[in-house]
Structures are given as C-alpha cells and as structure tokens.
Amino acid sequence: MLRILFSAPYMLPFLDRFRPYFSKYGLELIVPEVNERLGEKQIMGFAGEFDGTICGDDQYSKDVLSACSPRLKVISKWGTGIDSIDQQAAAELGIKIFRTPNAFTLPVADTVMGYVLAFARRQPWMDREVKSGNWEKLTGHSLSERSLGVIGVGNIGKAVLMRAKAFGMQLLGNDIIEIDPEFVRVAGVKMLALQDLLTRADYISLNCDLNPSSYHIINKENLSRMKSSAVVINTARGQVIDESALIKALETGTIAGAAMDVFEVEPLPGSSRLLDMDNVMLAPHNANSSPNAWEYVHWNTIRNLLDGLGIAYSGDEIERMPESSNSNQED
C-alpha cells in the first residue's frame, strides 16, 4: 500500500470527506499535527515512510528531499506557490511537483482592493472612533485621486490593475519580464522601473513570486524612496518584505501604513510590533479565501497526486469534481 503524508492545512478540517477516495485507490494516510505548515525537522521525522504528499507550504529543502528519497515520488502542493520546495533538488532526485496555477487570482485581487478602499476611505478607523464614543470625521480620498503601483504584473497583478482601473486610479506597474503590450494598452498601465514606481505610487501592491530578485524587495533603501503617505499591501509572500525595516518605517513615519496578509514567520509571533500598530491592517494568510476556489483546489490537488503516482481515475467521479471559477484566466 502506498503511503501519503497529508499535511495541507486547508484540507485537514475536511479530511473525512476525502478519506474514501484515498482508500479507494489503496492510499494510506499519515496525518501529522500541523500548525500552518511543517518545518524541515517535522518532515524529517517521516523520511522514508511516504511515497507522496499533499502539502501546504511545508519546507521541502534539499536535505529533506534527499532524506525522503528514493521513496518519495510526488509532491502535490495545495495552492499555487512552490517556493518552499527546492525545485532543482526535486528534479535531480526525480521527485515530481504539482500545483494548481492561477487558483486564487480573483479572491486575492479582491482582497488587495479591499485594503486600498479601507485606507483611502478610512472606514476601519472611523468605525473604531464612533464605537469609542468619538464623533470624529477623518479625511479620506477618492481612488480617482490616487495612484496604484503593482509589483509583479502576473495573473493577480493584472486582475488588481483592472479593478483599480474601474475606480479611475492612475496605474503603475513593474515586472522583471516584459508584459503583454496589449494588456498594457487596454489597462492603461504605465510600466516603470522599480525605483520610479516606488517614488510615484500612493498604494504599492506586492503581487510577485518569491524568487532571488524579489526577496526583501521592500527593504530599508526602497522604503526610503516611497512617499510619506504611501501604503504597502502584501498578499504575495512574507519574505518579499524586510519586516524589521518595514516596522521601523511605519514607526518613524517614513510611510503611512501597511496591509499584510503574509509574514516572514507564520503564524505571526505574539511579540511582533506590528500587532500594536494603528496604521497596519493584518490578516492570517487568508487572501485566497473563497469557497469555490478552495473546493476546486482540494480536488485538483488530489487529482495531481494520483497523476503523479500513475494511478488512473478516468471515468471516476473524482474526474468530474469542481472546475476552477478562474478558468477564463491565463495560466
């Protein structure tokens, strides 16, 4: 019997729904205790015991992959990002990696615009004041008076820009690859060098992959280039921001605010100074929240595992499970 390390945190609460399918295909589940993700040491405890895994952002480093090989044949990642997996080491060891591209474009783009609106219209702060007994009118801005800079004009970045276009915002973009000229024309986005975008944008949305060029792309130097009224929004990966530099910039008024769905360490430690800041909005890595999207990813992750293990399910009910609500988007 093949054994599967099942550690995807979004699927664990519904494991009883999926167990019959694993049993049907002769797959035995190993279900560890998971707090957001498995670290290297935790995975090492199961090395050599499983043939495949359905995981979240578990830390599959080169050492971990080597220890799990040659038994480990496939990693089926719940979601899109695979930066927590050493892809080169996996390729060298013959370990297949699967994911679900473009799974969360729509909910993440909605989340970004929600943060932009909240800061522009000051709604959370006015709500707090009124509930505290203070009848104070805070100054807000129309989005048509503000600019949005998107770093990483991929699927999510494009969706963010098109939403902002509907609000009449001035659109700025930056990417390390050339963006389709037709999209640039239709969206009306001005593609800029990173430094130019940082100096001009009122809101800066991070929608880039985590890679060597984006690691700590928001650092002390780049924070100093921003407007003192600027707000940084991160729904990408925690490591694209140097968190200590961001905290200092927020404390000193170098920038006005930040909205963060992701962090360098997750869950966010209780000692983080971000928790005490009035100019920060925080969320528990939940920008992907969407029942339809989650349902699609659940089943696609199982299909990916079966494909990776060479298990045929053609004609089976699992083949007809929900399709992505984002199917009209690019991969």
Mean pLDDT: 95
| Cα radius of gyration in angstroms | 21 Å
Assembly category = single chain
**Regions with pLDDT < 50 over 5+ consecutive residues?**
324-331
Number of strands: 12
Structural class: alpha/beta
Query: What gross morphology would you assign?
Result: elongated
Task: Describe the strand arrangement of the main beta sheet, using strand numbers.
Answer: 8-7-6-9-10-11-12
- Count of helical stretches: 12
Helix content: 25-40%
Terminal CA distance = 34 Å
Give a written overview of the molecule.
- The protein has 331 residues and is an alpha/beta fold.
- 35% of the residues lie in helices and 14% in strands.
- The chain has helices at residues 15-24, 40-44, 62-68, 87-93, 105-121, 123-131, 155-166, 181-187, 194-200, 220-224, 243-252, 291-309, and strands spanning 2-6, 27-30, 52-55, 74-77, 96-98, 147-151, 170-174, 190-191, 203-206, 231-234, 257-260, 280-282.
- The strands form two sheets. The chain has a seven-stranded parallel beta sheet with strand order 8-7-6-9-10-11-12, sandwiched between helices. A five-stranded parallel beta sheet has the order 2-1-3-4-5.
- Helix 8 (181-187) links the parallel strand 7 and strand 8.
- Helix 5 (105-121) crosses helix 7 (155-166).
- The protein is elongated.
- The two termini are 34 Å apart.
- The model is unreliable at 324-331 (pLDDT under 50).
